[in-house]
Specification:
Blueprint: E1 3-8, H1 11-20, E2 25-27, E3 30-32, E4 36-40, E5 46-48, H2 51-54, E6 75-77, H3 82-92, E7 97-103, H4 108-120, E8 127-129, H5 137-145, E9 148-149, H6 154-182, H7 190-208, E10 213-221, E11 225-229, H8 241-251, E12 256-268, H9 276-287, H10 291-303, H11 320-323, H12 326-332, H13 339-346, H14 382-397, E13 403-414, E14 417-428, E15 460-461, E16 463-472, H15 481-489, H16 499-507, H17 517-526, E17 530-533, E18 536-539, H18 541-549, H19 557-571, H20 577-596, E19 607-611, E20 618-623, E21 627-632, E22 640-650, E23 657-661, E24 668-670, E25 677-679, H21 680-694, H22 696-708, H23 717-722
Parallel strand pairs: 1-4, 1-7, 7-8
Antiparallel strand pairs: 2-3, 3-4, 5-6, 8-9, 10-11, 10-16, 11-14, 12-13, 12-15, 13-14, 17-18, 19-20, 20-21, 21-22, 22-23, 23-24, 24-25
Helix pairs in contact: 4-6, 6-19, 6-20, 7-17, 9-10, 9-14, 9-15, 10-14, 16-19
């Protein structure tokens, strides 16, 4: 009897499918049952070949060899994944395998993962497609009962292939052109360049900003404060100093009459469930985790502990079939501080309302929520617990009653000028009770925290003082990782565009994807285009110069949006993939010509007097995410040497994070904020004594976490090629 091979995208998904399909016999890289064999990829196993595979001359980077435009793209097995590819290929080639079911992620990239493996393995067997949006047993069983023909997704595969080939032909050509032209490690790409351009543009806004004085007027009664507002505009800011002083002069000695009191019952519902970007934003704002860190933590909670669902999702809703499993998920989290809230929800009929259950708002995957797996909180590291806590509290809050309060607004007249006051009285904490301990995520930005006395229209208030406050307008804030993720998700809010272009950007989901944005931000740091000052992201001189050197079209988020629109049309069968590919090749030719003909200069303004021990050229001093280092200015040399490393150790005097400088026995801890300096050996001895007394458990958890860290290669053609630049 012939068997059916099922190809999953990752081992964890493969194991879930195998359990449902009763494939209990374990083998290296696959699981087997009486009817099915389940095997898996590790993300991508196959990728587009590097340029040197097409021609030996591309091993050396020369401007005269550009552009590189393969007639037909070649596929290669990713070196790190070769063993698993051979397992998958051998199982596909088995004589007793009569059919293959593609069970990779239900989306464009998932389709590409499977099709490239099948193409590289030269498999010609019948194909079917499992297309599901959740990994519950019910969903899997239903999906296998309703398998689709693989031909239904041929256009989706062509769109994914076009995207990968376009990134190769545009990204690799412009990167080599810039690097050869300016003999510096310079990379560019449609998402990276557009993201960096937003950071550089924001910095220019800040540099060009000229603060203006403005004034606010407040009046203090016996029990609360009122603020002046303009009767015509409703604004509270006055830019005319003479007018402000005149208002203060007239109102200081005048009576105050209440002209209106409005009491409104207000209800505030919980924010929607987490998608990856929203989770990364909150984790950055509350815990200062980078986007990459949050994704890595989520990956462990999903794969190793199996207590949270798939992380790389852009949906904030769950499907109706997942909603049916809510009771099991609530039982799994009924422990610790979550128990009373979970039991409160289970004590009544669960209201699966449209605020979080909506099949029409789910793409490839549903929102991030807890699984039915019971968690042992003691096994989680501090970082894992923090992220898990955010997801569980959000999951509970969407099913709890709304936050209810009475909002009182008072308008009063003083000498013909209007003053207002606002206050809230809480009626029911509702879902906000979940956040009473730990970090409050949702209560930011609420107005009217002052308690107002019982008051009615016509009352005369005793005004003690009227104050004039001089303030200054502030420049726009620099990006941090959270706000940068927002800008990548909705660039139309941050870039000046016409309404049609803004609409296109909004409809295509911004620049990058939830799966790639963290890697893009990380690459900006690794290439020293940006650096951090506290939480703020600041472009370096290298980053600013690169944006000046990159052709205009490539740094516009609109280009990415147009690409996505065309790729969407290809996936729907409405556009010819061959036309798109030819257009991308012509665009790559234009980009290379722009760089070749440019008269711009690139200047290393971070050059030091220290010579490279390898090639003798002067080295650059750069600040990376993890510390300061020397890097050889010659990209072909690639030598680098640490100067100092940022640590988590705190200064005993000012409590700022310390830098570790020097090598060997000469290592010292230095505080960049105050004058503290101490030999590393002495400091570590003190630290270790304290650690042994207090933190053995935390240290053990940390070591386990490091061992479990499972950083997967990005596995894109661009990433594979850039690895040759010796960036790490």
């Amino acid at each position: 009897m012939n068997k059916i091979l099922v190809l999953a995208e990752k081992p964890s998904v493969g194991r879930d499918l195998a359990r449902v399909l009763r494939c209990n016999r374990k083998n290296s890289g696959y699981l087997e049952g009486d009817k099915y064999v389940v095997t898996w990829a590790l993300g991508h196993l196959v990728t587009l070949a590097d340029p040197e595979v097409y021609n030996e001359k591309y091993k050396n980077w020369n401007m005269e060899d550009l552009p590189m435009l393969p007639e037909k793209f070649k596929l290669v097995v990713i070196k790190q994944s070769g063993k698993q590819f051979n397992v998958v290929k051998s199982q596909m080639n088995r004589k007793d395998i009569g059919e293959i079911i593609i069970a990779t992620d239900s989306g464009r990239e998932g389709e590409l993962v499977a099709r490239w493996i099948i193409e590289k393995a030269r498999i010609k067997k019948p194909l079917k497609r499992l297309w599901i949006s959740s990994q519950t047993d019910k969903s899997i069983k239903e999906g296998f009962r309703n398998l689709k023909s693989s031909t239904k997704y041929d256009d989706l595969y062509r769109a994914a292939q076009c995207r990968a080939e376009a990134d190769w032909v545009v990204g690799l050509n412009i990167t080599r052109a810039l690097t050869c032209k300016y003999n510096a490690q310079l990379t560019a790409g449609r998402v990276q360049s557009a993201t960096l351009a937003m950071i550089v543009a924001r910095e220019k806004e800040i540099d060009d900003f000229k603060p203006r004085d403005y004034y606010e007027i407040t009046a203090s009664s016996d029990k609360f404060k009122l603020k002046w507002i303009d009767k015509k505009s409703g604004g509270a800011n006055i830019f005319d100093k003479d007018r402000a002083e005149d208002i203060v002069k007239r109102t200081r000695s005048s009576s105050c009459t209440v002209v209106d009191v409005i009491e409104s019952d207000k209800r505030k519902f919980s924010p929607a469930l987490y998608d990856l970007t929203e989770l990364q934003r909150d984790a950055n704002r509350i815990f200062n985790y980078s986007a990459k860190e949050t994704l890595s933590i989520m990956q462990r909670l999903y794969e190793n502990y199996k207590i949270l669902t798939y992380p790389r999702t852009d949906s904030r809703y769950i499907s109706t079939d997942v909603a049916e499993t809510i009771p099991e998920r609530l039982k799994a989290i009924s422990l610790g501080n979550y128990k009373k809230f979970a039991q409160q929800i289970m004590g009544k009929k669960i209201n699966a309302h449209k605020g979080f259950v909506d099949n029409s708002k789910i793409g490839d995957h549903h929102a991030i929520i807890p699984t039915e797996e019971r968690v042992q909180l003691s096994k989680l590291s501090t970082e894992e617990m923090n992220v898990y806590d955010l997801v569980v509290k959000r999951f509970l809050s969407v099913m709890l009653p709304p936050y209810e309060y009475v909002q009182t607004s008072i308008r009063a007249d003083i000498a013909g000028e209007m003053f207002t006051a606002r206050g809230n009285v809480v009626k029911s904490r509702g879902w906000k009770m979940v956040y009473e301990r730990g970090n409050t995520v949702e209560t930011e930005g609420e107005e009217g925290n002052q308690v107002l006395p019982k008051i009615k229209k016509g009352d005369i208030l005793n005004i003690r003082t009227v104050e004039l406050n001089r303030l200054q307008t502030k420049p726009p804030a620099r990006f941090n990782e959270g706000t940068l993720l927002s800008a990548m998700e909705s660039p139309q809010k941050y870039v000046k565009l016409d309404s049609k272009s803004a609409k296109t950007l909004g409809e295509t989901g911004g620049i990058g994807t939830v799966a790639t944005r963290a890697d893009i931000i990380e690459k900006l740091f690794n290439m020293f285009y940006v650096e951090k000052k506290g939480k703020e992201i600041i472009p370096t001189s290298k980053g600013k110069q690169l944006i000046d050197l990159v052709p205009a079209g490539l740094k516009s988020p609109l280009m990415t949006a147009k690409w996505e629109r065309e790729l969407e049309n290809i996936s729907l069968g409405n556009e010819n993939p061959g036309v798109f590919s030819q257009k991308m090749k012509k665009y790559a030719v234009r980009l290379v010509d722009d760089v070749k003909n440019s008269r711009d200069k690139f200047v290393h303004d971070n050059l030091t007097g220290k010579k490279c021990p390898n090639c003798g050229k002067y080295m650059l001093q750069v600040k990376g995410r993890n510390g300061i280092m020397y890097v050889c200015q010659d990209r072909t040399c690639g030598y680098r040497e640490n100067i100092s490393r940022f640590t988590n150790a705190r200064c005993p005097e000012c409590h700022k994070k310390l830098e570790l400088r020097g090598e060997g026995k000469g290592k010292i801890y230095v505080c960049p904020n105050c004058s503290f300096r101490e030999k590393a050996s002495l400091f570590n001895k003190k630290f270790k004594e304290s650690e042994n007394k207090l933190n053995k458990k935390d240290v053990s958890k940390y070591m386990k976490k490091i061992k479990k860290e499972n950083e997967k290669p990005i596995n894109s053609a661009m990433a594979e090629a850039l690895s040759k630049l010796k960036l790490k």
